[in-house]
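Dear H.,

Thanks for agreeing to be a second pair of eyes. The structure we're designing against is below in token form, covering all 488 positions.
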């Protein structure tokens, strides 16, 4: 294997301590699945050599940790890779990528494992698991953080908040930085600081040829452009360098809660109100069900700035209609950032469809309210965009959807697998009713047809295909919102 040169001298001895468990199983070779879906057998000696080359571990079915490693957040997904390379560093990722590339083996890359459609695990291929690569190094003076490709958003938040700094992260702290960032990255501060990709200064990327490339505005600038919105199509990001911003960890925020009967009026008010808000304000309505079983509309707010100004900005919302509850006030941002960790916990059956709302028209509000049943569809929600996210040109990064009001999600989650068909059908029905009011979708969330996905990259698609063709001509990295190279 070419990449063996990256391994430390002590590695063989260290690996011997973990590898024997699988070496007995590989005697006759390991059955696996190729990129084109054909069955193949991985040579026993090569599998053993891969295992010995890793600073992390190679897991096969039956090994301790194999089932935990292949389990991802969405309980609907149950796939069994032939091999799982639990990588400890970039050299491990290079070895794993080279192994798969040389054999045309199907590859999945797991960052935080929060892909709704389950793109981070595969049946019969090689899963590259980055869960050991979770370091976060903050340089408070330069206001930057260098973060491992398998780190979780909560780890980034915790490390930056300690220095009164922050960058845009999402609303559930156990989501991975990897998938989140490569697809765009929305969060409560994106209107002020931009999307996660707008804060990526550089990344280290292992491309399909096994090379480790540093990408930034000055180095490999095509790849730097492509990974900011083009997902995992171009390689495995082993680290990201983020721009950080001064941030007071006590923000002004909370929720105003309305009975769902008022949802239409509140959303019509929100349509206008949200257009006039300063960048510091993030306001996101959520349709859900109260502990008593009643449908409610929660309007969650967060102001990343001066608290007095925040009081003025949120006053019209708090005075609107007849809310059941209002807990807006000074609040720990970390508390807000972990508020949904439990509700959105691991292991539930989950199905989601989403799309961008260019303008929140009365017809869109009507469709949103009419179709939310609060039974088969558990939740509908907005991710409030605009502000700084809209000031970046659509072709400045691979992320084309800059001029939209919000991202709108329709989500079902449940425990009993017997309910799956009816739950999925209900989410799809709601989505069909919303489609006329939406334009494009967040590639991080939907599992759509190839044609729809390609169209969704908009005018950036052609450039993405060129870069994909140059760096991944055989489409090794295909389990994502896939861009096909010209040759494949
Ligand atoms: C509970 C929950 C809350 C969410 N909240 C938000 C939110 O607030 N804002 C938002 O924008 N999105 C949010 N999302 C969507 C989220 O951004 C995507 O699901 C994202 O793909 C998750 O990244 P991950 O690393 O955890 O996922 P994974 O399942 O590990 O990976 C997802 C995709 O990214 C690829 N990938 C992951 N890491 C790397 C890497 N280091 N290098 C190359 N490819 C990689 C994988 O191969 C796969 O194609 C949420 C999702 C969930 C489930």
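And this is the sequence the design step returned. I haven't edited it by hand at all.
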């Amino acid at each position: 294997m070419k990449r063996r040169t990256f391994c430390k001298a002590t590695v063989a001895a260290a690996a011997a301590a973990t590898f024997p468990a699988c070496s007995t199983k590989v005697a006759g070779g390991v059955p696996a699945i190729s990129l084109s879906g054909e069955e193949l057998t991985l040579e026993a000696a090569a599998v053993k050599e891969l295992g010995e080359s890793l600073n992390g571990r190679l897991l096969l079915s039956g090994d301790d940790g194999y089932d935990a490693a292949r389990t991802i957040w969405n309980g609907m997904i149950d796939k069994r890779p032939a091999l799982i390379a639990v990588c400890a560093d970039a050299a491990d990722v290079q070895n794993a990528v080279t192994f798969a590339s040389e054999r045309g083996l199907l590859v999945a890359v797991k960052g935080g494992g929060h892909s709704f459609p389950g793109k981070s695990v595969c049946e019969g291929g090689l899963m590259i698991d980055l869960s050991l690569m979770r370091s976060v190094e903050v340089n408070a003076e330069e206001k930057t953080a260098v973060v491992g490709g398998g780190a979780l958003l909560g780890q980034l938040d915790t490390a930056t908040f300690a220095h009164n700094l922050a960058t845009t992260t999402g609303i559930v702290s156990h989501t991975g930085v990897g998938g989140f960032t490569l697809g765009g990255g929305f969060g409560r501060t994106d209107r002020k600081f931009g999307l996660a990709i707008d804060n990526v200064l550089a990344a280290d990327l292992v491309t399909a040829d096994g090379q480790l490339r540093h990408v930034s505005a000055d180095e490999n600038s095509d790849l730097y452009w492509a990974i900011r919105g083009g997902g995992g199509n171009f390689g495995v990001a082993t680290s990201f360098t983020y721009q950080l911003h001064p941030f007071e960890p006590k923000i002004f925020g909370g929720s105003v809660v309305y009975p769902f009967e008022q949802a239409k009026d509140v959303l019509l008010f929100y349509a206008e109100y949200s257009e006039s808000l300063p960048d510091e304000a993030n306001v996101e309505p959520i349709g859900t069900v109260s502990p008593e079983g009643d449908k409610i509309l929660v309007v969650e707010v967060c102001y990343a700035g001066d608290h007095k100004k925040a009081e003025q900005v949120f006053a019209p919302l708090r005075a609107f209609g007849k809310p059941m509850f209002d807990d807006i006030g000074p609040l720990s941002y970390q508390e807000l950032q972990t508020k949904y960790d439990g509700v959105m916990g691991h292991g539930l059956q989950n199905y989601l469809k989403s799309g961008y709302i260019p303008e929140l028209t009365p017809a869109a509000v009507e469709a949103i309210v009419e179709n939310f049943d609060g039974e088969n569809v558990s939740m509908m929600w907005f991710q409030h965009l605009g502000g700084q996210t809209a000031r970046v040109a659509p072709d400045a990064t691979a992320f084309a959807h800059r001029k939209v009001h919000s991202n709108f999600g329709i989500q079902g989650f449940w425990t009993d697998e017997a309910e799956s068909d009816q739950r999925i059908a209900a989410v799809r029905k709601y989505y069909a009713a919303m489609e006329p009011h939406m334009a494009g979708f967040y590639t991080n969330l939907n599992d759509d047809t190839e044609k729809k996905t390609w169209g969704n990259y908009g005018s950036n698609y052609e450039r993405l295909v060129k870069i994909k063709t140059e760096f991944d001509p055989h489409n090794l990295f295909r389990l994502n919102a896939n861009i096909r190279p010209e040759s494949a």
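Two observations from my side: The two ends are 25 Å apart (CA to CA). The longest helix spans residues 420-434.

Warmly,
E.
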